[in-house]
Design goal:
This protein is an alpha+beta fold and 181 residues long. It has one domain: Cyclic Phosphodiesterase, Chain: A (Alpha-Beta Complex). Helix content is 25%, strand content 35%. Helix 2 packs across helix 3.
Length: 181
């Protein structure tokens, strides 16, 4: 018996390649083993860095998808290097994450530009007070971690994606856009 229609969670993200995804997953396992935050580790296939969250929808509105894709197509940001060099947790959401000690200028520019373009195309966004770049590696942690240095994981960022997430299903990349000036 079905509980009704599956909700679609729609967001823009940075999507790690397979090698980086494996390295992030190995670091998540090390943190789980050595620092014992006591949460549930994410499946490696779900690892990503959210850029802009568009919301939850009973079905994907075609006008929203068209606007989101048009906004993404106008982004002009050069590829950049991102370094995941620390781990920590957010108290309010009880997640453990990997992230950069400092946000690279290219990443901030991508976040800002995408937000502006989405507003220009009248795509509603869930308001965020500030950008806090991170890759969630565990949910429901019981012990919070202070910001802790890790061996750096290099992430050469060449593109970004629009993702459709449905509970219990693999993430579906709707579209991918290369970074370019």
């Amino acid at each position: 018996m079905s509980d009704g229609p599956q909700m679609h969670r729609l967001f823009f993200a940075l999507w790690p390649d397979d090698a980086l995804r494996h390295s992030i997953d190995e670091e998540a396992a090390r943190i789980e083993r050595e620092l014992s935050p006591g949460g549930r580790r994410l499946n490696a296939a779900r690892l990503h860095m959210t850029l802009q969250f568009l919301g939850d929808f009973a079905s994907l509105p075609p006008a929203l998808l068209d606007g989101a894709c048009a906004a993404a197509a106008q982004i002009r940001v050069s590829p950049f290097a991102l370094e995941l060099d620390c781990a920590g947790s957010f108290r309010g959401s009880n997640v453990c994450w990997l992230g950069p000690t400092a946000t690279p200028a290219g990443l901030q520019e991508l976040w800002d530009s995408l937000g502006i373009a989405l507003r220009q195309h009248e795509v509603p966004l869930r308001p965020a007070p500030a950008f806090s770049p991170h890759v969630t590696i565990q949910r429901n942690v019981r012990r919070h971690l202070p910001v802790t240095p890790i061996a750096p994981l290099s992430w050469p960022v060449h593109d970004f994606v629009l993702v459709d997430s449905q509970s219990g299903q693999p993430y579906r990349i709707i579209e991918r856009w290369p970074l370019r000036r």
